[in-house]
Amino acid sequence: xxxxxxxxxxxxxxxxxxxxxxCYIRESCNGMxxxxxxxxxxxxxxxxxxxSRIEDCHHISxxxxxxxVRPAYRVLGFPLIRHYSFKTPxxxxxxxxNPNVIRQIMGMVEVWEVxxxxxxxxxxxxxxxxxxxxxxRVDTINSILEYMEPPRAVRLLxxxxxxxxxxxxxxxxKGNQAMMNCILGYFDxxxxxxxxxxxxxxxxxxxxxxxxRGNAEATEALMNQISVQAREHLCGVTDANQSExxxxxxxxxxxxxxxxxxxxANIMARFDRESQWKILQCPSVDGKTALHVAVEENxxxxxxxLIDHAGDNLQELLSQQDDLxxxxxxxxxxxxxxxxxxxxxxxxxxxxxxxxALTDDENAILxxxxxxxxxxxxxxxxxxxxxxxxxxxxASQHNSASAISALLQxxxxxxxxxxxxxxRTADSxxxxxxxIAAQNNSLSALNELLFSINREQRKEILESENANGMNVSxxxxxxxxxxSLLAGSPLCxxxxxxxxxxxxxxxx
Length: 508
Hints:
Elements: H1 6-15, H2 18-26, H3 34-40, H4 44-56, H5 64-69, E1 74-75, E2 82-83, H6 89-95, H7 99-111, H8 129-133, H9 138-145, H10 150-158, H11 167-174, H12 177-184, H13 189-196, H14 206-212, H15 216-223, H16 228-235, H17 249-255, H18 260-268, H19 273-281, H20 290-296, H21 300-310, H22 314-319, H23 337-348, H24 352-358, H25 362-371, H26 376-381, H27 391-397, H28 401-409, H29 414-422, H30 433-439, H31 443-450, H32 455-463, H33 480-488, H34 490-500
Antiparallel strand pairs: 1-2
Helix pairs in contact: 1-4, 3-4, 3-6, 4-7, 6-7, 7-9, 11-12, 11-14, 14-15, 14-17, 15-18, 17-18, 17-20, 18-21, 20-21, 24-27, 25-28, 27-28, 27-30, 28-31, 30-31, 32-34, 33-34
């Protein structure tokens, strides 16, 4: 068997009587029986010839089950150095992810009517064969489950071993959605909510693990299969002060740096604004909100998403303290972009991007745009201050050329750039960014705006009028910026001539 010589093994088995076969299967080499050897060599053919010959025996003693389920005791290397695998042949086959060998073993288990204790035997890490299989391929776990009726399969799948983990916990931790779907297929609708919401020793459900792993699709799939009441409880809408829950699912999600914004978006979309606010302010047993966790983990995407959902309650959320009287901002590493963003957010709320545009802080703009879950177009154009100005309007007003460049380049589309420059203020003047830049003599901003679009788009936007019927050349004050631009930029000079013949009108 050590040389994986199936033919010679078959000859030896054929020559032996039932008593000899019993001796063979009882024999141990370095703590491993013949079944362990066959499983470790991943040879389905080897296992088949062993199983077939064993099943032909009619005088196997009653304690054969103990031989079959006996874990291996393996001695490796120097005699004083011992490694205890304590794995049954089935666990070894699962470890090697070999469904064919597993089926050979399971067929023998069913013939000999071996008890469930065999399937519940745990390895040194505390995993049963089924729990270990939940971390492998679907075919691997199916090669075990196909030999049993659904009630038995459900009982064994729901068994909680190491760390209080069921098979679903294991597949959730691994992020194996196909395996999760396979496991849940054995449970009816009423059983699924209880199974999915079963907690491990740390108080985490399978939902917590998928959220913590940033697996948005798996999290959404599990959320769809539990009751509304269960969702509300796990996310912190109800029983917000319940001490048995260390973290909500949203707390777990806030820890993940992998697509956490997608997972958070899927979770929050299931609740109305009132429920969302309850989720945001829900404390864990140590008083931390999900925002505390996100900041502590330096999870920028989660921070921006949570702040976005806070809306008008942002100041209250930012000021909420944990049991150590620390706010979320207190957990930020000093002098980082996240720390600076929290300071700005605590003062300006959702207008952090406007502040960065006003101060021409290109790095802050790029950081916000990179980590925010909203589309860059919406961030650049849709969020308005009390004057009805977007971030691009503010940058144009204050001659923040670097900010304009960062905002427009983030759009990655010429048409979106043109639309952004053309978007009007939400006041009575209805100025676009070009009007604002010219009105405020923002020469650098004017240059950046004009050269971010093509020739045809320049013609169109230079001719566009605000609510007062004025284009860039028809401003009520002497326009130093436009004149300077024309003097220093021949291309713009040509464009303006072609557009409206440079008919400047100044007040008398």
